[in-house]
Specification:
- The chain is of the alpha+beta class and about 450 residues long.
- Helix content is about 20%, strand content about 25%.
- The chain has helices spanning about 70-85, 160-170, 190, 205-210, 320-335, 350-360, 365, 390-400, 445-455, and strands spanning about 95-100, 105-110, 110-115, 120, 125, 155-160, 175-180, 215-230, 230-240, 245-250, 250-255, 260, 270-275, 280, 295, 370-380, 385-390, 405-410, 415-425, 425-430.
- β13 (about 270-275) and β14 form a beta hairpin.
- α6 (about 350-360) packs across α9 (about 445-455).
- The mean pLDDT is about 95.
- Bound molecules: flavin-adenine dinucleotide (FAD).
- Flavin-adenine dinucleotide (FAD) binds next to loops.
């Protein structure tokens, strides 16, 4: 493992800009810290094998908020790296990539590395700007100044996603006027009932807007930005067709998103997707166009899964990609190094209660709805085997002939319910189970539904 940084923490060594995360950790939860079930309440700790190093975030937070501060998160990651004795070469930047027979060769500022399987976990935090006249000359989120320097200023923020709303939240007590603009209406996570949209943590400017307190949340395209002496003129065109609206402001900030520093990977055949050009990936986070090249961490957000009901994975955040990481390690071990992972036998009498326990409390399923699944397979010799947690899309596209995958899913009405996907002779059938207001699916009704789905397959 190499890192261009001088120490652990990645992007959290400097961001979020206003120094507090949008992902939470609840020190007090219905399950004991360090247990698997507890992970559902702790979005920020990494997942070690050893019990002593689990739920580390809770040992670092100071109790002022259930959103850790940025320095606390940095300390959480650094403590993890130190206690698990990860061997990382810091201050070592990968610069170019080439193929040499069956090896990848990575040139770095600290020499050449050769490997069979490179995994690029280089983050999604390189500033990205859309094409727009004048945008090259204005600061990006990454260039934001200390909040007090915006005191009494009119600030125009381009972008209405989390980073734009985060800045607006931090400017509320400083700026004279805040405009947040982009062509589409702002989405709020509490309305989309998913991580799509602005998180509740940054919704305060939106309330200020609806109560007409001085923040303007505008649906308009930005036609061009002009410098006018010490100020700016921003030409906007309203999305509802009601015409142009110019703004005279003191500051403009592009909160237009981030991309990944892929360097020469596209020249090595790595295809990219989406407006911010992230690598196109298979369900196991392998480059879709350059086999043998894998991605790690938040870049997994570009491997979208099924997007059932339009809801994406949570792979952009630690709470989602930490589970993908485990599966990725297993996949690389199996596919490239011939290491097979043991698949324990599940007694026939235990299958129903096991699946209902998993959908009630498995953190992988709760954090990665419709994306990761608990998979059981039928083996002619050994019986029912537990194949672990795997990507749902892989199971449906090319899973075993006789098997079941259990997931949690959410419909547009906000109901959360388990789904069983059975495969019989390779043919998939979906079985939606009923929601439960307490999210506990260990009921007679659910038992009957599981028995029904598995009869003739496992039972
Ligand atoms: C503004 C912002 C706020 C966010 N807030 C949250 C949050 O509150 N909670 C959450 O869960 N997620 C948050 N995220 C998503 C977040 O980035 C990830 O969850 C997490 O940081 C991803 O870890 P990572 O290791 O994939 O990437 P990063 O943390 O970005 O780390 C990438 C690493 O790659 C290294 N690297 C890059 N290029 C090279 C190179 N050429 N050679 C060597 N090393 C290199 C970097 O030095 C760095 O150490 C946020 C993202 C942004 C942009």
């Amino acid at each position: 493992m190499i890192s261009a940084d001088e120490s652990a923490g990645g992007m959290f060594r400097r961001w979020p800009f206003f120094q507090r995360l949008l992902s939470w950790t609840k020190p007090y939860a219905p399950f004991e810290r360090g247990s698997r079930e507890y992970e559902r309440y702790d979005w920020n700790s990494l997942l070690p094998e050893e019990a002593d190093n689990r739920a580390l975030m809770t040992t670092i937070m100071d109790g002022t908020s259930y959103y850790p501060s940025r320095p606390e998160m940095e300390r959480n990651l650094a403590t993890f790296a130190e206690r698990t004795k990860l061997a990382v070469r810091y201050g070592c930047r990968w610069t170019t990539t080439r193929r040499d027979d069956d090896r990848w060769v990575l040139e770095t500022t600290d020499g050449e590395y050769r490997c069979q399987v490179p995994i690029f976990a280089v983050g999604v935090s390189q500033p990205w700007r859309p094409a727009m006249p004048g945008i090259e000359d204005i600061p990006h989120y990454a260039d934001t100044r200390p909040a007090e320097t915006y005191a009494g200023k009119r600030v125009f923020i381009i972008g209405k996603e989390n980073s734009g709303f985060e800045l607006a939240t931090g400017f509320l007590q400083w700026a004279k006027q805040i405009v947040l603009a982009s062509p589409s209406a702002a989405k709020l996570s509490i309305n989309t009932r998913s991580l799509v949209g602005v998180r509740a943590r940054y919704v305060q400017p939106y309330e200020d807007h609806v109560l007409a307190g001085g923040v303007i949340v505008l649906d308009a395209s930005i036609e061009r930005i002009e410098r006018t002496g010490a100020a700016y003129r921003v030409h906007t065109r309203r999305s509802d067709g009601s015409g142009d609206l110019p703004f005279e402001v003191d500051d403009v900030i592009a909160a237009t998103g981030f991309t990944s520093p892929l360097l020469d990977l596209p020249r090595q055949g790595v295809a990219t997707v989406g407006r911010n050009h992230l690598p196109a990936q298979t369900p196991f986070w392998e480059s879709a166009s350059t086999p043998g090249v894998y991605f790690g961490g938040t870049i997994h957000q570009a491997s979208p899964g099924l997007r059932k009901h339009g809801i994406p994975s949570n792979s952009g955040g630690v709470n989602g990609h930490r589970y993908n990481g485990r599966i990725l390690a297993r996949r690389v071990a199996e596919k490239h190094f011939g290491i097979t992972v043991d698949k324990p036998v599940v007694a026939k009498a235990e299958v129903v209660s096991y699946l209902l326990r998993e959908v009630t409390s498995a953190p992988e399923l709760w954090h990665q709805k419709s994306y990761l699944a608990r998979v059981l397979i039928r083996d002619e010799k050994r019986g029912i085997l537990d194949d672990g947690i795997l990507p749902l899309q892989h199971f449906l596209d090319s899973g075993p002939a006789d098997a079941v995958a259990a997931t949690l899913e959410e419909n547009p009405a906000g109901d959360i319910y388990p789904v069983l996907y059975t495969r019989r002779g390779g043919v998939s059938t979906e079985h939606d189970l009923a929601p439960n207001p307490l999210h506990d699916f260990r009921t007679r009704e659910h038992e009957a539904a599981v028995v029904d789905a598995l009869t003739g397959l496992f039972l």
